[in-house]
Amino acid sequence: MDVMYHPDKLSVVTVTASRPLIRPDGRYAIELSTSELGAIAFEVDERALFALRQAIGEIETEMKRRPGRA
């Protein structure tokens, strides 16, 4: 897992809720409610979902190894 050394170069938001969406044209998206920007959404396909699952799994593993750091 990489360390975020330069958070000022990324758009970092605090996610407060999420929900899946299906667009009228049949494409899929995930809506995120954020403290900073309100609701935002990003489209996903099978590859994007695979990448997200991998990243979430890595973060969950790290959080279990170092409780209290989140």
Concise overview:
This protein has 70 residues and is an alpha+beta fold. The protein is built from one helix and three strands; from the N terminus they run E-E-E-H. It has one helix spanning 46-65, and strands at residues 15-22, 28-34, 38-44.
Describe the structure.
There is one protein chain. The radius of gyration is 14 Å and the shape is globular. It is built from 1 helix and 3 strands; from the N terminus they run βββα. It has one domain. The model has no long low-confidence stretch (mean pLDDT 91). Strand 1 and strand 2 form a beta hairpin. A 3-stranded antiparallel β-sheet has the order 1-2-3. With 70 residues, it is α+β, with helices and mostly antiparallel strands.
SSE layout and pairings?
Blueprint: E1 15-22, E2 28-34, E3 38-44, H1 46-65
Antiparallel strand pairs: 1-2, 2-3
Order of adjacent strands in the largest pleated sheet? 1-2-3
CA-based shape: globular
- Main beta sheet: strand number and arrangement? 3 strands, antiparallel
- The number of helical elements comes to 1
Q: How many domains, as an integer?
A: 1
Q: What's the Cα radius of gyration?
A: 14 Å
- The structure class reads alpha+beta
- Work out the oligomeric state of the chains in this entry: single chain
Report the β-strand fraction as a percent range: 25-35%
Helix content: 25-40%
Q: Kindly, what is the distance between the CA atoms of the first and last residues, rounded to a whole number of angstroms?
A: 15 Å
Q: Order of SSEs, N→C?
A: EEEH
Beta-strand segment tally:
3
Mean pLDDT: 91
Low-confidence stretches: none
